[in-house]
Design goal:
CATH topology of the largest domain: Rossmann fold
Number of helices: 10
CATH class of the largest domain: Alpha Beta
Radius of gyration: 22 Å
Number of domains: 2
CATH superfamily of the largest domain: Response regulator
Order of helices and strands: EHEHEHEHEHHHHHH
Length: about 210
């Protein structure tokens, strides 16, 4: 016999928290093991309970759900967290993904089935993002993904190479080098090559020797 999926609910709204915990706890195959109204208590409870999945409200009184997710992931990189929020702002979605959230759901009436489905997917090692949210994530990934040749150009920049030196090293024309540099700046949201280098290092795309 399979054990229930243990769930911890984090939400500062007492009414919403109670409604969600009651709905999950009454569903077959799920068990509420804890609930918290703020991030500090959520962190403490998580470490004590180690639930299978956490539903995390974005807006919390002490620090937000993304920050709380980052702290939980630092404690347990294998944690399963689903962020619940009232909007789907692209930057918020991306912050959740970067923090390590395995799922993302909009708060709305009559969403119990969606929540239960998300809990099941995430608990079994998968992810759960609504189609429109998943599309935004993929678009962002596609936009930010540098090609192998763009990475070559970045490495040359990291070595302090000029455009002419990049042309000679990679056997590229001047127009091709300029095109790659332009694409790199766009993908890294950088105003110039210096900012592009800083962003590339921050993201771990290249390493610059001291």
């Amino acid at each position: 016999m399979m054990s229930d999926i243990s769930v911890m609910v984090v939400d500062d709204n007492a009414i919403l928290r109670m409604g969600l915990t009651n709905a999950i706890d009454s569903a077959e195959g799920f068990s509420i093991v804890g609930e918290a109204a703020n991030a500090e208590k959520a962190l403490r409870l998580y470490k004590d309970l180690l639930p299978d999945v956490v539903t995390m409200d974005y807006n919390l009184p002490d620090f937000d759900g993304v920050q709380c997710t980052e702290k939980i992931m630092a404690f347990n990189p294998g944690a399963n967290i689903i962020l619940l929020t009232i909007n789907e702002a692209e930057e918020e979605v991306w912050q959740a993904v970067e923090a390590g959230c395995k799922g993302y759901l909009l708060k709305r009436a009559g969403q119990v089935e969606d929540v239960l489905h998300a809990l099941s997917e995430v608990a079994s090692g998968g992810t759960y993002f609504p189609a429109n949210v998943a599309k935004k994530i993929q678009q962002r990934l596609n936009h930010e993904m540098l090609t192998p040749r763009e990475l070559d150009v970045l490495r040359c920049l990291g070595e302090g190479s000029s455009n002419k030196e990049i042309m000679d090293t990679l056997q590229l024309s001047e127009s091709t080098v300029k095109m790659h540099l332009s694409n790199i700046r766009k993908k890294l949201n950088a105003a110039d090559r210096t900012q592009a280098l800083i962003e590339a290092v921050k993201r771990g795309l290249i390493h610059i020797e001291e």
